[in-house]
Design goal:
Helices cover 35% and strands 32% of the residues. The protein is α+β, with helices and mostly antiparallel strands and 69 residues long. Strand 2 (18-25) and strand 3 (33-39) form a beta hairpin.
Length: 69
Amino acid sequence: MERPVAAELSLARETSTTYHVMYRHRSEPRGAATPWCLHGRDTLRVFLQQCESAGNVDRILTRVEAGLK
C-alpha cells in the first residue's frame, strides 16, 4: 500500500534542456537527499507527474522555466 511522504523537491534549469533536481525526504535523518540530472522538458514532466498532482505540474514547469522559486 502506498502512503504519502513529506518531501521537498528543488528544481533548477542548468541549460535550455538540462534540469538539476534535488529530492529531500523530510522524515529521513538529516533530510536524506537524492540528486538527479534530467535531460529534456518531457523527462522533467514525467518525473513531476510521479511526485505531484496533475494540476500542479504545468504550474511548476512554468515557474522552473521562468527561474522562479
